[in-house]
UniProtKB/TrEMBL annotation:
Nucleus keyword on record: yes
Listed GO CC annotations: mediator complex
Keywords: Activator, Nucleus, Transcription, Transcription regulation
Any one of the GO BP annotations: regulation of DNA-templated transcription
Organism ancestry: Eukaryota, Viridiplantae, Streptophyta, Embryophyta, Tracheophyta
Family note: Belongs to the Mediator complex subunit 31 family.
InterPro entries: Med31_sf (IPR038089), Mediator_Med31 (IPR008831)
Name of this chain's protein: Mediator of RNA polymerase II transcription subunit 31
Listed GO MF terms: transcription coregulator activity
RNA-binding listed as a keyword: no
Assembly with partners or alone: Component of the Mediator complex.
Location in the cell: Nucleus
Length: 204
């Protein structure tokens, strides 16, 4: 009977604690802090700072980085303004990347590659987004229409061609010849001017 009495004293179900921690602002402050930290990971210089100060040697911090992967979910990713932070967050899950970012040369390399991505991203993306113009149609070679057959040309004798050809115009040998046929020389034209002067002097 004692065993039955003891079993009655042990509760059959475990009761959950009544006073659970609840954020006073419904998690708004925590949301903003985690969002700010995640977006800081878009800067390779900040990751280099974390590596040099040995944050990546803390197991709790590495666990925190794994926890922050929930920002890749669609309901949270819409708040991200710097998408590169999610890319670096994924790389930080690898221990080799965390150790490499402690060296300044690797930090400069990551920063340079990030710059080149920003510089060429738009042009590279437009190659796949913009519709390509259709290829220009190649003009087919035009085939000339078959011309009607021409009648054969009959060859005429040379004497017939000479008789039918019009006579060529003959140039006058006199540079001052007139078309009326009377050859008036250059001296005659000058003599006319002398006669006019004489008549003018006689009137005076």
């Amino acid at each position: 009977m004692a065993s039955g009495k003891e079993s009655e004293d042990i509760p059959t179900t475990l009761s959950l604690p009544q006073n659970l921690y609840k954020d006073p602002d419904d998690g708004r402050q925590r949301f903003l802090l985690e969002l700010e930290f995640v977006q800081c990971l878009a800067n390779p210089t900040y990751i280099h700072y974390l590596a040099q100060n040995r944050y990546f040697e803390d197991e709790a911090f590495i666990g925190y980085l794994k926890y922050l992967q929930y920002w890749q979910r669609p309901e949270y990713i819409k708040f991200i303004m710097y998408p590169h932070c999610l890319y670096f967050l994924e790389l930080l899950q690898n221990a080799n990347f965390r150790n490499a970012m402690a060296h300044p040369a690797n930090k400069e390399l990551a920063h340079r590659q990030q710059f080149y991505f920003w510089k060429n991203y738009r042009n590279n993306r437009l190659k796949f987004i913009l519709p390509k113009p259709p290829p220009e149609p190649v003009a087919a070679p035009t085939i000339p229409a078959s011309a009607p057959p021409q009648p054969p040309v009959q060859s005429l004798p040379a004497a017939t061609i000479a008789m039918t050809a019009p006579p060529a115009p003959v140039l006058s040998p006199m540079p001052y010849g007139n078309p009326s046929g009377s050859a008036l020389g250059k001296s005659d034209m000058r003599s006319g001017g002398i006669d006019r002067r004489k008549r003018k002097n006689e009137r005076v």
